[in-house]
Specification:
Number of strands: 0
Shape: elongated
Order of helices and strands: HH
Largest sheet: none
Helix content: 40-55%
């Protein structure tokens, strides 16, 4: 299990953790950046697929997409201003 997770979670402790995370502006900025990168990748994979369809090679093409899951949810982000 990742360091930020647990099999047994006290509901009061979980609620406090969620409230703390929601109030953390640095965490908001961190996730804002992550979701922006995910959208960028999604948009560009879509462009690639559209291009393959346009060239009529999509049915004869295998696309392999890999990624590191990151596992950064429980780690403190470092602010760089």
């Amino acid at each position: 299990m990742p360091g930020w997770s647990s099999l047994y979670v006290d509901i009061d402790q979980a609620s406090q953790t969620i409230e703390s995370m929601e109030a953390d502006r640095l965490r908001h900025r961190y996730y804002h950046n992550i979701f922006g990168m995910v959208k960028l990748i999604d948009d560009n994979v879509g462009k690639l697929l559209d291009h393959l369809k346009e060239k009529r090679v999509a049915d004869n093409t295998i696309i392999v997409f890999t990624s590191d899951h990151g596992d950064q949810l429980g780690k403190k982000a470092i602010a760089r201003e």
